[in-house]
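Researcher: I've been going back and forth with a colleague about how Undecaprenyl-diphosphatase might be arranged in three dimensions. Neither of us has a model we trust, so I'd like an independent prediction. The organism is Paenisporosarcina antarctica, in case that matters for your notes. Sequence below.
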Amino acid sequence: MEELIIIIKYAFLGALQGFTEPIPISSSGHLILAQEFFGISVAESDLSFEILMNFASLIAVVLIYRADLIRLVENGLKYIVKRDEVHKNDFMFIVYLIIGTIPAGIIGILFGDMISENLKGITTIAVALLVTGVALWLIRNLKGRKSDKNLNVRDAIIVGFAQAIALIPGISRSGATIVAAMGLGMKQETALRYSFLLYIPVSLGTIILKITDMDFGELLIPYSVAFILSLIFSYFSLKWFMGIMERGNLKYFAYYCFAVGLFILFIT
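Model: Here is an independent structure prediction for Undecaprenyl-diphosphatase. You can compare it with whatever you and your colleague have in mind.
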């Protein structure tokens, strides 16, 4: 019976992380809130669970954007080999992804542990959710003009720093990067694509740096269940979010962040 309860606990956390990862409401914040209010927690363990769930969401993003990834790699290589101007835009998009990854990479390495240890309080998460809600509200009606071919180094740096800010629990990574991208005048489609393609190198970097810390121990089955659910929920959540972006309904996520943030502040 105890083993079944453990599996159910990890299944819930895996589904929760998967569902909240792509949408702008902070997956890290919701996992902390779930542990605080429902008494559900992972093994004091380690980063194993976090890394595994991160990997599941990464796979979902790669599956959804596989056509874009294949095109970027093929055209990027063609530009390097042939210097064909037709493929320059895709090559430069790759360059901007690399540039956009640097801020979060540096800040994560230097201050990641400090942030995770000192900013996990639910009050911090409540305030961060309110900040996320305000940001989403401010850009809810923006209709940018910049497409993939119009991006520049400045755009990449600013969105990269927005991604770094999302190291704070309660600040949504997708929310921060999409808000920054749309604030810079990107079309919703471009902002969404750049945001989630930017997630790939950061996620890979995290996995590579921390993979040696992984230790499943006796939790192989619960972790496996959580991994599968996180992958499935991440995939369909991202698909759902893409539809919401197309319809310009970001304001509903702002309402949600306001509601949860104020509720937490009220009861604490």
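Researcher: What would you highlight for our discussion?
Model: I'd start with this: The chain has a mean pLDDT of 91. After that, consider the following. Residues 2-38+45-267 form one domain.
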